[in-house]
Amino acid sequence: MQCVAQLGELDPVAPRFRAAGIDVVTIGTDTVQQVRAAQQAALENGVDPIHMDVLCDPDIEVFRRWGVWDGFQQEPMHGTFLVDPRGRILWQDVGVLPFSEIEFLLAESQRLLTAWDSVDDPAGDPIDAAVFRRGMDARYHTFRIPAIVRAANGDLLAFAEGRVQSGSDSGDIDVVMRRSGDGGRTWGELSIVADNGDGVFGNPAPVVDRESGDVVLLLVRQEAGSHESQIRSGKHGSRTPYVMRSADHGKTWSEPRSLLESCDREGWGWYATGPCHAIQLRHGEHAGRLVVPANFSSLAHGGGNAALGAHLLLSDDAGETWRIGAVDEANLGKPEVNPNESTVAELADGRLYVNTRDHGGKSRATRAFAISVDGGETFVAPFQSVEGLVAPVCQGSVLADGEVLLFSGPSVGNKRERLAIRVSDDAGATWREALVIEPGMSAYSDLVALERNRYGVLFESDGYGRIRFRSFDRNALESRRSAASPPERK
Questions:
Q1: What residues form DSSP beta bridges with 400?
Q2: Fewer Cβ neighbours under 10 Å: the N or C end of the chain?
């Protein structure tokens, strides 16, 4: 539950709302820089600045997201708005709040929280939480590229790229993390996992080793001052895979260690891991193997999209050493399918299903897949289009749970919006829509299995202003077994 207020009216009593389970934020049309400047000026003048999180949006998209927008006058509405976990306004007041109305709002918030828990979620676990927010940490401009795993102690570890100067894919970018010990309801302090100075550490791909309980994190390092187009063309810069390890469920981490010698090839330019969770195999002779989806570009095929390819990284010793497994080179130089950001799941029969973003290919579909029957050593055939998954050109995530295969990603063919969970009951041959997570703007995402037949999805939303965590029940996936199509765009 969130209480969204303008102008900071609730700042003096924000701790009372948080104690009641209400997340209080301020929304405004200032930029992040303007807010920082105002807070600094307040400090210099001896005035205590607003302590609440501020969602800044000069384009006012955040007001549309919360529904506090006057369509007739085309301006934000003033006041305080109580919003439920699905983003619906349950109560609003359009004036500055006297103390009596604050008391009423607190009581109403608690009543609605109780009603939501008892009616909509018998398990008592309705979660829609903002994990990373633009403006939540003065060190970062934007948070992007989510990945999530459930640690051996049950904690959820949410990773992202903390982008310092802007939302750009290049520049000063760190891998950051937040932890939840209550299934995603609340999240701890932001910590920096990997910092490459003015360069990039990014594309987190975490996995938990079942035997040791260690969290193994693959990521990539990029030199400062280099950009993707330069790296793909071989003109300047490089991208190198690295590995890190935590033996205490993500509280501390080893130093990043380069995998250049074992996991890169001469003639590869661009390189990326995931970005999403990786997996550990459960079936067959390769049980225990760690498998990380990755992608590259071939310098021999130029800097265009036809030079893109996908591959798998494998470890048979709990992440201590790594090597290259399956590589799709058959699509290189061909414009039909251009494998890019990938995600992998182990099917019930032990086969690996790899789903990838088709980046600028000429196929009608924007998703493609490949199968491995030997634990990720090779692909049975080159990546081929998945016609049944309607999506824009964007990253996505797959998760296998028994006979069920889940996919998360935007579901409108030409725009990053309407994040939905699609389900396949036949190992990826056909897909049906099961649940719409976010009807508005949404982009990259990652899936995680929770307790009690529940799942979670960590996803970008609100014009890349937030990365949110949403939980849902397996029963929700069975409520819409007939195929559903997203609305047509006009």
A1: 405
A2: C
Six token digits for residue 284: 């067959």
CA distance 245 to 250: 8
Domain around 331: 138-478
Q: Do residues 63 and 179 both lie within one domain? A: no
If asked whether residues 252 and 329 sit together in one domain, one would say yes
User: 205: closest CA among 292, 284, 118, 332?
Assistant: 292
Structurally, how many domains does the chain consist of? Answer: 2
Top-confidence residue, 70 or 402: 402
d(CA 419, CA 406) in angstroms, rounded, equals: 13
d(CA 256, CA 273): 14
Cα–Cα dist 179/161, whole Å:
15
In-domain check, residue 388: yes
pLDDT (tens digit, 9 = 90+) per residue, 300-344?
998 889 999 999 999 999 999 999 999 999 899 888 899 999 999
pLDDT tens digits, 42-97: 667 766 555 444 444 545 554 555 454 444 444 554 445 555 444 444 444 444 44
Instruction: Check the CA dihedral 86-87-88-92 and report its sign.
Output: positive
pTM of the predicted model, to two decimals?
Answer: 0.75
Strand segments (E) across 336-473? 339-346, 352-358, 367-372, 384-385, 397-401, 404-412, 415-424, 432-449, 454-461, 466-473
